[in-house]
Amino acid sequence: MAGRNDQSAQAHDAQGRATPDWALSLDGMRAQAWSCLSRGVRDRRAPSRHPTLATVSPDGWPQACTVVLRAADPAQAVLEVHTDTRSAKVAALRAAPRAALHFWDARRHLQIRLACTATLLTGDAAAAHWDRVPPAARATYGADTAPGTPIDDPMAQGHGGGQAWGFAVLCLQVHMMDLLHLGAPHRRAGYRRAQAWAGQWLAP
Ligand SMILES: Cc1cc2nc3c(=O)[nH]c(=O)nc-3n(C[C@H](O)[C@H](O)[C@H](O)COP(=O)(O)O)c2cc1C
Fold it and tell me: Which residue segment(s) compose the domain that 186 sits in?
């Protein structure tokens, strides 16, 4: 049937678990991925709370680090991460505003890989976000020793912090999603924003 992407075959993995209904269709896979991302924003213990953010340094090295997922907007396909304005990832994104995000949710057996373009908000443009950062969390931003500065003593981390000028919002516009559900069989699907998120099954 034209446009139909459901697959009705019910399968079981090595542990006897049935493939969940959401993994049977392209739309279901994508909806589940956004559900997973939204959960990461509101649940500190969700695996999707802490994705890996990958960028490319100004001299071409791949770099990856763990971050906290702060916001997820399924309608706009935009995610948000907060960081220090002086972090290496900010310098990387200023030189090449492209990033990847990687998530693995072991409970859902779902890997999510996202290709994004990044917009940096700092200063006045980040003020509304800064106002919503809890006071205790503000200390992370703008300490008098910048992230990555060599120090003689791990206790000598600098003071200060809580500085709005040190706060940057990374707005990550998702352009491509690559989803992999581990089951029997494994199911992989790719989606592009430029194609209105019409999905395509891919060989795993
Ligand atoms: C669980 C966890 C969560 C983290 N969350 C963030 C975050 O939201 N923003 C951030 O800038 N760094 C975060 N970090 C630290 C980064 O992984 C990284 O070490 C730091 O930002 C320095 O990165 P840089 O190389 O870009 O300077 C987190 C680290 C861990 C282990």
Answer: 21-145+159-202
Distances (CA, A) of 187 to 13, 79, 109, 162, 183: 12, 24, 11, 45, 7
Evaluate whether residue 131 is within a structural domain.
yes
**Is the Cβ–Cβ distance between 99 and 69 less than 8 Å?**
no
- Whether residue 2 is contained in a domain is answered as no
195 Cβ partners below 8 Å, 6+ apart?
none
Here the CATH number for the domain that contains residue 84 is: 2.30.110.10
The residue contributing the CA closest to ligand 1 atom 10 is: 83
Please tell me whether the overall predicted TM-score, pTM, comes out greater than 0.85 for this model: yes
- Give residues (CB < 6 A) around ligand 1: 50, 65-68, 81-84, 87-89, 147-148
Is 78 domain-assigned? Answer: yes
Tell me: pLDDT of 184 over 90.
Answer: yes
At 18-68, the pLDDT tens digits run 899 999 999 999 999 999 999 999 999 999 999 999 999 999 999 999 999
Q: How many domains does the chain have?
A: 1
Please check whether residue 15 lies inside any domain of the structure: no
Ligand 1 atom closest to Cα of residue 87:
27
Q: What's the average model confidence in pLDDT over 93-103?
A: 98
